[in-house]
Predict the 3D structure of the following.
Amino acid sequence: MVETGRLAPDREGIARAAALLRAGYLVAFATETVYGLGADATNEAAVAALFDVKARPLFNPLICHYASAEAAFSDVAAGPLAERLAQHFWPGPLTLVLPRRDRTRVVPAVSAHLPTLAVRVPASPAARALLAAARVPIAAPSANPSGRVSPTTAGHVLSDLDGRIAAVLDAGSATIGVESSVLDLTGEQPVLLRPGGVTAEALAAVAGPLAARAPGGAPRAPGMLASHYAPRLPLRLDATDVGSEEALLAFGAPLAGAGLTFNLSQGRDLTEAAARLFHGLRFLDSEGRRSGLAGIAVMPIPEQGLGRAIVDRLARAAAPRRAELAEKVRVAGSGMA
Ligand code: AMP
Ligand code: MG
C-alpha cells in the first residue's frame, strides 16, 4: 500500500505529479475524456506496474499522450492525413494509430509489441500542463481496473485504486465523459477502431469515408474486447419497460413504473448523456446492489454523433462476461500479443 495523494491542478500540484511520473510512479490525471492512469512511457518498470495495477492484459496496447503534435509525431510516422487530422482535432479526444518510428524511446510493451503506436494530444488544461511539465510521453489508459466502468472524477479513481497509485491530479469532472475516438491510419483507408469523443461524422468530414471494422472478424486492435466498461449488475439494453427488480438508466422521459433511476439527459442531449454515462453506471451499480436490485434496464440511445460512443460503451458493458475470457484466449493465441 502507498498513500495516494490528491493533488490540485495548480503549479505545485502539477510539478509534484510530473516529478512522481518522472521517478517512475503511477499518477492518475484528469483529461477531457475520462481520468487516465499515467506512467512514463519510456520507463519499462513503470509501464509494467501500470498493466499490473489495472490487471490489464499485456496484449491490450496503451495510448501514449503528448504535449504537442510535434512531440507525438517524433515517435510515429505521420503522413499528410495524420497531419491534417492533428490540425483539426488536436488538442482533443482523438487518438491516431500510426507506424512506430525505430528510434522512439517509448518501450515496446506500451504498444503490446505491435509495429504501431496510438498517440494523442489531450485538450484539458490540467493534462496539458502535466504533459508539458513531465517532458516525457505518458502512457495512460483509463484509471480503473481493466474491464470495469471508466472514471470521470477523482473520487471514482480513488474508490477503485486508492493505496495502489502514487497520486491523482484532481481537476474536477471530465467534461466529455467518454474515451477518445481511435482512428487507425496504417491501412489504405482510415478505420475507426473505437467511436469516441470526436464524432464519426466530424472525422469523415476531414478524412473522407471511414472503413468499418470487420464485423465479427478478428479485432484489428487487440484491445477491442467484447466485454468492457462493465458494472457488476447486468445490463439490459433498449428497454421499453422496466421490471420491479431493475434500476433504470434513462434517456429522455423515464419509463413508467421506474424505481431507482439515473437520467442521462432529460432533454435527450447526447453531449450531456456522454458526460454523465460512467457516473450513472457507477451510481446505479452501487445503489442498485445496496438495495438488492438484480439488473439495470437501459433506454434506447440514438446511434448518431456522440450517441455512437455511448451505444458502443453500453453494448460492451452488456456483453456476456464469458465471451470476454474466450476472446482473450483466442486473441492471445493468434500471435497478436
Ligand atoms: P484505453 O487505454 O482503455 O482507453 O484503450 C485504448 C484503446 O486503443 C484500446 O482499445 C486499444 O486496443 C487501442 N489501441 C491502443 N494502441 C493501439 C495500437 N497500436 N493499435 C490498435 N489499437 C490500439
Ligand atoms: Mg479503459
